Amino acid sequence: MKALRAFFLIMAMMMASGAMAQTVYNGSGSSIGKIESDGTVRNSSGSSIGKFDSDGTIRNGSGSSIGKIDKDGTFRNSSGSSIGKMDNDGTVRNGSGASIGKVERDGTVRNGSGSSIGKASGVPREWVAAYFFFFFN
After folding, report:
1. Coil, strand, or helix at residue 1?
2. How confident is the model at residue 136 (pLDDT cuts 50, 70, 90)?
3. Which phi and psi (to 5°) does residue 134 adopt?
4. pLDDT tens, 17-50?
5. 3 state SS of 101
6. DSSP, residue by residue, 10-78
7. Is the dihedral of CA 96, 102, 103, 109 positive or negative?
8. Exposed, middle or buried: residue 36 (CB in 10 Å: 0-12, 13-18, 19+)?
9. What is the DSSP letter of 98?
């Protein structure tokens, strides 16, 4: 009986952890990957292609730092230079300050023309902006 309870507990934990991964969709609504609650970024095959660390560091699939997101929404490359910023309203700007898109509160991602280019909800909007505009897409 204990083994059966342990089995169900393990299954419930596995299902709960899988539910935390948020699917990333392209503008056509097709799945292109996942962003897990711990920040791991996976491609459509399930392979890890990067990670968002809790301190804002962004890593590639090999674990090397490729950039950072500052607390004020500034995106930096691996050299520390500013390459963009996300405003409080979700507007994403390039390094020159020009608007290049927006991440809406529901996770919808729009390009500079306002067309939907993807969606990822349930994770920080800064991660979604970094994924679509600067590091993974």
Report:
1. coil
2. confident
3. -130, -35
4. 344 679 999 999 999 999 999 999 999 999 999 9
5. strand
6. HHHHHHHHHHT-EEEEETTS-EEEEE-TTSEEEETTS-EEEEE-TTSEEEETTS-EEEEE-TTSEEEET
7. negative
8. middle
9. -
CA–CA distance, 101 with 120 (Å, rounded to integer): 15
In angstroms, rounded to a whole number, what is the distance separating the alpha carbons of residues 67 and 136? 11
- Looking up tokens 């095959």, which residue turns up? 45
Neighbours of 79 (CB within 10 A): 7
**How far is the first Cα of the chain from the last one, in angstroms, to the nearest whole number?**
48
Q: Do 86 and 75 touch, CB atoms closer than 8 A? A: yes
Q: Which residues face 106 on adjacent strands?
A: none
Percentage of the residues of the chain whose pLDDT score is greater than 70: 85
CA distance 72 to 50: 22
- Name, in order, each residue with C-beta under 8 angstroms of 101's C-beta and a sequence gap of 6 or more: 91, 92, 109, 110, 111, 112, 117, 129, 132, 133
